[in-house]
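Hi everyone, sorry if this is the wrong subforum. Our group has a chain we'd like a structural model of before ordering constructs, and none of us has done structure prediction before. Sequence below.
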Amino acid sequence: MDDEEQAPKSPKVLAVAAGPGIYYAAVREAWWPLWLSGVLFVVGAICLLVGLGVIHRVPVLAVWLIQLWLTAPVAIGAVASAGAIWAVVLAQTHFKRTLPDADGDTLTQWVSVAILGGLGWLILGLLSDKESPLWPARITQKAFVSSFAGFDHTSIEYQAVNEPLVRVDPEIRGWSLHARQRRAWLIFDKIR
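Answer:
Right subforum, don't worry. Here is the predicted structure as tokens:
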């Protein structure tokens, strides 16, 4: 089975796992995990921009650079996860001070569910959905189509750009990282 047919889990897991670490470090006034998240976001964004800029000349390099873009949404997810933990702790502290115990606990639970549910649905859902516009396979596929529209409709290169199956030996199926690399090599051989 092509690995793109399965919902990707590792970016979501990384974001969720890093969130408590960022929160814990921030509580201890150690800001380096937050800075590191910022650096990862910037590096990912630069990789995406450079990858999209060179795809028409060096598609093999572009595929790797676009894959590295994934560090940016993971960094955002990790910071958002830490922010959600902070918001839940802040709500719990506030409600315990201002409301009786039973009401404060109930309201804290409702707020926690709303914050964490919203985070899971918005950010982490985008990180785990293979059809998400954040996912490198979709970005690469769209970039191939926009950069290499001039291939003959009967050529292998056209299949590499536009079709889910490329009829070469061995066949290329789907848009996994390995499949994108093989597609990029076919295109590169044609354009060089």
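For your construct planning: The chain is about 75% helix and 0% strand. The two ends are 32 Å apart (CA to CA).
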